[in-house]
Specification:
Elements lengths: L1 H14 L5 E4 L6 H10 L4 E4 L3 E3 L15 E3 L5 H15 L3 E4 L5 H9 L4 E3 L2 H5 L3 H9 L15 H11 L6 H9 L8 H12 L2
Parallel strand pairs: 1-2, 2-5, 5-6
Antiparallel strand pairs: 3-4
């Protein structure tokens, strides 16, 4: 609930000067309202969305997941994530990292049209570790807005993939300009903090 989010973000904000980014679930009844609570508590940005809960069985009736249920990721999350991104951007005005269901450049464009500052690639990059690079190449000169390879599941893998996708860039300001589609000097300080956090993954 909002009170819980405020408490967690407030504690995190008090312990660091680095960017604090709250990641929110797609099953929240009011994801924009919870994002607003996070913003009021000092969050610098919001990531949407996390996985959705799901359950499947084998033919013999045993659960396909060890705990019986788990998080659903992949293509099914794309419209959910895009909608959540649009709602959070409209309500809070904070930088938003759009995550969920991204497989190609068209999917990236959906998040950017919804107002995402950055776009994360999760499940697809586990199937094809070169997909961040492929998406950047597919967009060509329109590749701005993508900081490819920020994978939810594994920070080390995220770093490896992002480094592969943007090998040779090297400088944070160039990465930030790619992500934001404008000079770093033109970006407000709060957004710049979020972008620097993403660039630091490289």
């Amino acid at each position: 609930d909002a009170a819980c989010v405020r408490r967690i973000v407030t504690l995190a904000r008090a312990r660091t000067k680095r960017a604090v980014i709250a990641k929110l679930s797609p099953v929240l009844p009011d994801v924009a309202g919870i994002a607003e609570a996070a913003a009021e508590a000092g969050a610098d940005g919001i990531t949407v969305v996390n996985t959705m809960p799901g359950r499947l069985w084998h033919a013999d009736g045993t659960p396909r997941l060890g705990q019986g249920q788990g998080g659903v990721s992949g293509p099914a999350l794309l419209p959910v994530g895009v909608l959540a991104t649009a709602k959070v951007v409209e309500r809070t005005g904070l930088p938003v990292i759009g995550v969920g269901g991204v497989r190609n450049a068209d999917d990236v464009r959906q998040y950017l049209r919804a107002g995402a500052t950055l776009v994360g690639i999760g499940t697809a990059s586990m199937v094809d570790p070169r997909i961040p690079e492929r998406i950047v190449h597919a967009r060509g000169s329109a590749a701005h807005g993508v900081l490819a390879g920020l994978v939810d599941a594994d920070a080390a893998l995220a770093t490896e993939l992002a480094s592969g996708a943007l090998r040779g860039v090297g400088r944070y300001d160039l990465i930030i300009e790619l992500a934001a589609n404008r000079p770093a000097s033109d970006i407000d300080s709060r957004t710049l903090n979020v972008l620097r956090l993403g660039a630091h993954q490289l």
